[in-house]
UniProtKB/TrEMBL annotation:
It holds the Pfam family MFS_1. Residues 380-399 are annotated as: Disordered. The lineage of its organism: Bacteria, Pseudomonadati, Pseudomonadota, Betaproteobacteria, Rhodocyclales. Signal peptide: none annotated. It comes from Aromatoleum toluolicum. This is MFS transporter. Residues 1-382 form the Major facilitator superfamily (MFS) profile domain.
Amino acid sequence: MRSALVALVACQVGLHACVQGARLAAPLSVLRLGHSEWAVGLVMTMFALFPAIFAIPAGRLADRHGYHLPVRIAAGLSLAGALLAASVPHLIALCAAAALCGAGSGFGMIAIQRTASRFARDEADRLRVFSWIALAPAVAGLFGPMMAGVLIDHLGFSAAFAALALLPFATLVIAQAVPHESRAPVSALNRKQPSAWGLLRLPSFRRLLLVNWLVSASWDVHGFALPILGVERGFSASALGAVLAAYAVASMSVRVVIPFVAERLPRRHLLAGALFITCLVFVLYPLLQSAWAMALCAATLGLALGAIQPTILATLHQVTPRERHGEALAFRSMTVHASMTAMPLLFGAIGASAGAAVLFWVMAAALGLGGLQARRIDTDNGAPARREEHPQEEERTCS
């Protein structure tokens, strides 16, 4: 399955690089058209709003039809969004393009992560698989905006969006290397599905969603408050860039290392440990005066948050029924995108009234409480739920 796993990573890079490139190009295009910062905020909201709204239907689609149909839909949405932005330079078109690219990336992420879990032989292997999968957003976050920025400077916005459209097209082609799942029996497809919200009755799943939200909020707080704190300390732009680079390098490095040491990692305690480390870093940040000290904290934060994402994905597949992994991933996606939509406004209000230091410390308190909840996650929680909900349903495996 090594070639199939490489194909999954490449497919996610294609979809994610497209949306990341569009997240750079769309606001710049809005400003060039003469619109205000409010219009920029509207376009940026579209990237997160529609993936949150359609996450549950996307998860159900993946559970019913496997990998290929959802990824074709995802690539089609991203392709349409990029081509729309390339051909119609108008605010409404850019809002629609942002919604299409965001929804395409969200649809594809759920199907890709669900399918990746089918390649794992055991729990250590699942952590290894999701560590490779977690590299895709990091690679895409570097490649997509860089390509869009260079093309905007040399060939203009239309050329940049047209080039971004090639990425989901490549996803369509590469997806053929992923094995097809055996179809579920017709009776299983026609059976009335239980409510997706019923998954929230699983205590470990609720705690895992809380952990996932805390991780997402931590990323947002770090990206939002660190520049403010750096300006208060009188750091130069290059010094702040070095601090953020230390975070990015550490985050990517730990995801490369995890596959080789997955068997030795105490997965039961990794979630809580990463949250407690992040809590400590957030407590220390406002107390530091040196850019080098902040870079060291940023690298520590990158190691903790870089390790926790594949751990969350691996644990999610342990605590939920196998036939509902798509819905479980959809809940995770929905909480992430809802946080991306709403939390910056809250951060701005806290930062404006109390300062960046208080924002770090409030988040540290939340992370400490989240670490206590993470220790209570029972990784055997999904097995009984699986037997109770669909006792006669046949498993679908990759052929």
